[in-house]
Structure formats: C-alpha cells, structure tokens
C-alpha cells in the first residue's frame, strides 16, 4: 500500500523530471531497515523503557542503529512489532467550588 508521502514524492518526480524521473524512483514496499534481530532488540528495549511519543523512539533508533526513520516510518514499525500508542488526555480541573 502506498501512503500519501510516497504518492506526493512520485508526483513531484513526474512533474519535474517526467517518466524518466519515475523510472529511478525505486519504491520498495514494506521492508524494514532494521534486521529481525535489531527489531527484537528494539522491542525488548521499548518494553523496559517508557517513551512519551514516537519521536523519542525515532531518536533512540538513530543513536543506537544509525538509521533515520521518518516519524510515520517509526509508527508503522511499532505497529508491525505489535506496539500500540494511546494518546492520553490531561484535563485540568478548577477547584472553584465554595
């Protein structure tokens, strides 16, 4: 499946370089840059450390493995590794009761 960013990139190549630009696009679907072993290491690490968001995990992957995923790429990787992120809501309550 193609995401919006991939389609936009292909469209821009076509507009700017024509069909020749698309020939060099080299889209590869669904492959992970991390090996299975590194994915397992990452899974273990995430289970032991609490992260507030996927950007923090992205930064960890860059530091540990030297691979710079996009934020969306990290989200997809985490989904493939069966991690779920639930955005929490914080509400401040005014204590104005008298």
Q: What is the rounded distance between the termini?
A: 57 Å
- Measured by DSSP, the beta-strand proportion falls in under 5%
Number of helices: 4
Any idea how many domains? 2
**SS-based structural class?**
mainly alpha
Helical proportion, percent range:
55-70%
Shape: elongated
For the structure shown, list the relevant keywords:
98 residues; 0% strand; 2 domains; elongated; mainly alpha
Give a description of the structure.
This protein is an all-alpha fold. It folds into 2 domains: 1-31; 32-81, no CATH class. The protein is built from 4 helices and no strands. The protein has helices at 4-23, 36-48, 54-65, 71-80.
Question: Can I get a quick summary?
Answer:
The chain has 98 residues and is an all-alpha fold.
Task: Compile the SSE list and pairings.
Blueprint: H1 4-23, H2 36-48, H3 54-65, H4 71-80
